[in-house]
Specification:
mainly alpha; 2 helices; rod-shaped
């Protein structure tokens, strides 16, 4: 019985080694493809982030220029735009009539 087991192991060992080598090779290739795909996705994402950061930096430069060129009246201009937008959205402006005047 022991001799049969040794014979079986001796016959199946080369076959198992070949199967193991083939599996390890295919597993390594699959892992390399996964790593390449991840690297490509990461580089695309990094390019998108860089583009977005560049756009934001440009917007900040414009805002800095507005604040430094026009002074601190920017907040008053923003509030005036908000007030105008609220009137337009609500359509609640009082129509002016030159024919009818209020008396004080």
């Amino acid at each position: 019985m022991m001799g049969e087991l040794i014979g079986l192991v001796a016959v199946s060992a080369p076959f198992l080694m070949v199967v193991g080598i083939v599996w390890m090779t295919s597993h390594r290739k699959l892992e390399e493809k996964r790593i390449a795909a991840t690297a490509e996705a990461s580089s695309e994402k990094a390019a998108q982030y860089a583009s977005h950061v560049a756009e934001l930096e440009q917007r900040v430069r414009v805002l800095e220029r507005i604040v430094t060129d026009r002074g601190y009246d920017v907040s008053a201009q923003i509030e005036a735009l908000r007030d105008q937008r609220e009137v337009e959205q609500r359509d609640t402006g009082v129509p002016l009539s030159a024919e009818r005047r209020e008396t004080v």
